[in-house]
Specification:
The chain folds into two domains: 123 residues, no CATH class; 96 residues, Immunoglobulin-like (Sandwich), CATH 2.60.40.1940. Helices cover 33% and strands 28% of the residues. It contains six helices and eight strands. A hairpin with a 2-residue loop joins β7 and β8. α1 crosses α3, α2 crosses α5 and α3 packs antiparallel against α4. The radius of gyration is 20 Å and the shape is globular.
């Protein structure tokens, strides 16, 4: 969505935008889960310099992260998932250097981001032992009245074994959707058409559930996911303030 002539620069910008630091900054001025090009008007990103070793390192890490993510999300490669987590942590550390953020500040940033994303917090002094779990989520929780109303629902299986007999239920303002999948490996996407006249501009809560079998054991996920309807994709509201926050760090 953002044009580049240089692949290394594209990877560099991608890494910065996907770092915990910038994701928290975005969350501080918008409730939208979807990153769009307008965020570059509010986030100051130091211009890519091929002579800067830190910029080159961030770009190389980003390229590696893209390859690992493809292996994990498309092929369910758990070794790639574990390596990807390490690479993402390293990207956070390098981007922190870019903005002169120390280790303690970075730790607090990641803690705040985890809270915003609804993750369980690690208790101080304990060792984190949680394993990745199957997940169901909405890729595009922000819809626009002047665009086709179609939600993209994704099921992600982090294991190298298939989820079987996957039963998905979706409810939003009287709109119901049911789907049964024989098995899911990697990521599977479903598209749900929303009638244009059913939702006005505002915030809604979609009820989503997924039942599945994994190696003979039954499991179920139930959650509510916020969905936002806006008037127009062309009339994004400027909320401002982050340029003042990050502008002097360039």
């Amino acid at each position: 969505m953002i044009p580049f002539n240089d692949q290394s620069e594209a990877y560099y910008v991608s890494a910065v935008l996907n770092s915990s630091i910038i994701r928290l900054a975005i969350a501080s001025y918008t409730y939208e889960l979807r990153q769009e090009t307008h965020i570059t008007r509010y986030i100051t990103i130091p211009k890519f310099d091929t002579n800067n070793s830190l910029h080159r390192d961030i770009s190389a890490l980003s390229s590696k992260a893209h390859l690992l993510a493809s292996k994990y999300y498309d092929g369910g490669d758990m070794k790639a998932y574990e390596e990807l987590s390490k690479v993402e942590d390293e990207i956070d550390r390098r981007v922190a250097q870019l903005y002169n953020i120390d280790d303690e500040e970075l730790k607090e940033i990641k803690r705040c981001l985890a809270m915003l994303e609804g993750e369980e917090m690690e208790v101080e002094g304990t060792i984190e032992t949680s394993l990745p779990m199957p997940e169901i989520f909405i890729d595009n929780p922000v819809l626009y009245k002047d665009s086709p109303q179609e939600l993209e629902l994704s099921v992600a299986n982090p294991y190298d074994k298939p989820l079987e007999n996957v039963k998905i239920k979706f409810e939003l303002c009287g709109i119901s959707y049911d789907e049964v999948l024989d098995k899911v490996l990697g990521t599977h996407q479903l598209k749900i058409k929303i009638p244009l006249d059913r939702l006005d501009v505002g915030e809604y809560r979609a009820k989503v559930s997924m039942e599945y079998l994994l190696e003979g054991s039954d499991s179920k996920i139930e959650k509510e996911i916020p969905v936002y309807v806006k008037e127009s994709a062309e009339s994004l509201v400027k909320r401002g303030g982050l340029e003042d926050l990050l502008g002097d760090l360039e």
